[in-house]
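Researcher: I'd like a candidate sequence for this fold, 73 residues long. If you have to choose between options at a position, lean toward the conservative one.
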């Protein structure tokens, strides 16, 4: 089983052909894709992708460079 452990399928570069990219990964033997969220918006987009594509999982988090922009709440 092949797992892509760090993808950013939420990036705008994939807007035109995201479904085809995922299909090509599957055809190449990639069974699971982990979409890494580097901030709140990217993490939310990753969750939406995981809800849409059963082979996509969302890793939710905040990149250390973005952590300074967060508030305690």
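Model: Candidate sequence:
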């Amino acid at each position: 089983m092949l797992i892509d452990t760090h993808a950013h399928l939420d990036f705008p570069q994939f807007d035109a052909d995201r479904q085809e990219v995922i299909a090509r990964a599957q055809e190449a033997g990639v069974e699971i894709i982990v979409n890494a969220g580097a901030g709140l918006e990217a993490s939310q987009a990753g969750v939406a992708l995981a809800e849409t594509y059963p082979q996509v999982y969302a890793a939710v988090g905040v990149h250390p460079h973005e952590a300074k922009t967060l508030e305690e709440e």
